[in-house]
Amino acid sequence: SRMFLVGLSGGIASGKSTVVAVLRELGCAVIDADVIARQVVQPHSKAHQQILQHFGTEILLENGEINREALGNIIFSQPEKRRLLNSITHPEILKEMLKQVLKYFVLGYRYVILDIPLLFETRGLTRFMKYTVLVYCDPPTQLARLMKRSSLGVAEAEARISSQLPLEEKRKWATHIIDNSGDRESTRRQVLGLHARLEDSLHFLWARLAVGTAVAGLGGLVFLLLRHLIS
What sections of the protein cross the membrane (predicted)? Predict the structure, then answer.
């Protein structure tokens, strides 16, 4: 029995957390990359020590934790610093994600949903996903929601949205789209439909195994991780 991976992503204020809440309610295994990204840089972690070496103590808060805003400002304006930070944190994030995937595998889950905000930007991980799900909403709705949620003016909100790959662009890469432009009920119905399809694809797993095109998502992820650790 092969396990498969489902990548989930969205855009700022497109409503991904609403979708994740419904999936969790349905009993799906969801791994949140953002939560892991915060965990791996906690004080006394390997990544925390490396970040300090390269970025200095001025990026620390009084309690010893990393000031994400200060670090964000540095890497926003300096691409080479962003690459450096990624090279420190990404292997640690992958390692932790893989640990959680294996935990769910042992618990008997047949698929795991990986909630990765920059899934379509990084593109490297999409090849390990059997399906990729985009939580979409139309641009005017996205802008209105972001302004309301973050109390931002139009210019600021537009700047935040335009710093990301446009949702229209991401639509091309996703195998499934949840359109969250309408009300919660409509979104919920779409998530229930997606869940049914994911559960259903398990029933056809034996047929795919017979054809020999079963997903080696897990093996691929392990390989990627090993390559990261060795390099």
Answer: 205-226
Alpha-carbon gap, residue 85 to 99, rounded angstroms: 22
User: pLDDT per residue over 128-165, tens digit each?
Assistant: 899 999 999 999 999 999 999 999 999 999 999 998 99
Q: How confident is the model at residue 231 (pLDDT cuts 50, 70, 90)?
A: very low
Report the distance separating Cα 109 and Cα 34, nearest Å: 22
For tokens 């991976």, what's the residue?
Answer: 5
Which strand (E) or helix (H) includes residue 87?
A: helix 79-106
Q: Which residue matches tokens 């139009």?
A: 154
For residue 230, pLDDT beyond 60: no
| Residue 73: per-residue pLDDT | 87
| pLDDT above 70 (res 41) | yes
Torsion 100-103-104-110 (CA) sign = positive
More confident residue, 230 or 142: 142
Q: Are 67 and 60 in contact (CB under 8 A)?
A: yes
What does the block give as tokens for 220? 């691929």
Spatial CB neighbours of 185, under 8 Å, sequence gap ≥ 6: none
Return the sign of the alpha-carbon dihedral for residues 63, 69, 74, 78: positive
Long-range contacts of 120-128 (CB under 8 A, 24+ apart): 120/9, 120/165, 120/169, 120/170, 120/173, 120/174, 121/164, 121/165, 123/173, 124/224, 125/7, 126/7, 126/173, 127/220, 128/5, 128/217, 128/220, 128/221, 128/224
